[in-house]
Amino acid sequence: MADFKDRLRELIKETNKTQKDIAKEISEESELEISPQTLSYYVNGREPNYDTLKVFAKYFGVSVDYLVGYSNAERVENEDVIKELGLTNKVISLIKRIQSNLLLADDDRSLLDVFNQLVSQPLFLSFLVGFRRATFPGTKFVNFHFESLSDYESYEIDADDAKSIAYVTYLKSLLDEIIYDILIDERTRQSSKE
Questions:
Q1: How far is CA 82 from CA 57, 72, 89, 106, 156, in A?
Q2: Is the dihedral of CA 19, 20, 25, 31 positive or negative?
Q3: 31, 76, 73, 69: which is closest to 47 by C-alpha?
Q4: Which residue, among 157, 134, 135, has the nearest Cα to 144 in the 3D structure?
Q5: Average pLDDT, consecutive stretches of 10 residues, N- to C-terminus, the chain (194 residues)
Q6: CB distance 97 to 106 below 8 Å
Q7: Which residues of 38-49 are buried (b: 16+ CB within 10 A; e: fewer)?
Q8: Are residues 62 and 121 both part of a single domain?
Q9: Which range marks the domain in which residue 117 is found?
Q10: What is the DSSP pairing of strand 141-148 with strand 151-158?
Q11: Per the structure, how many domains does the chain have?
């Protein structure tokens, strides 16, 4: 598990700000006077007291538990999702952004509706498995079992081919088939409305 200095470094890096700018902003936004040198001490391993931890947590928008490495959930409300589903903070943030997005301009569906439709496609899991094998080849053979346009297909792919153009083309065609299935579902949905 990460410790405070690692988390602090990570959070500072994500802001794209200098330690001097961050120290100044923290001093302006809180009752804590912090110099760039003091911030540097924390980045290099000095342990802060609880009040200082709370100030850092508020500034970076994370929980104190995350700051000290007790939790991988940046925010308390993400903790259960991370424990149960294993999603990262970035994925949770992305899904929340999708959820809060406005409706598509020419449609009554939100981006969350589109996301749910994509992820619920039968071929989506096969795509993820294939992508994992393409990026992390570790076993000799990869077996895919999935429904494809109501046919049950099985593919056996040599993991040595994971970096080949043919394998990447296979993954692309699988993604194309997912999109095709979504389009068919959408046409069916529209036809049933009429």
A1: 19, 8, 8, 34, 33
A2: positive
A3: 69
A4: 157
A5: 84 92 94 92 94 93 89 76 80 78 62 79 76 60 42 46 60 78 78 75
A6: no
A7: bbeebbeeeebe
A8: no
A9: 103-193
A10: antiparallel
A11: 2
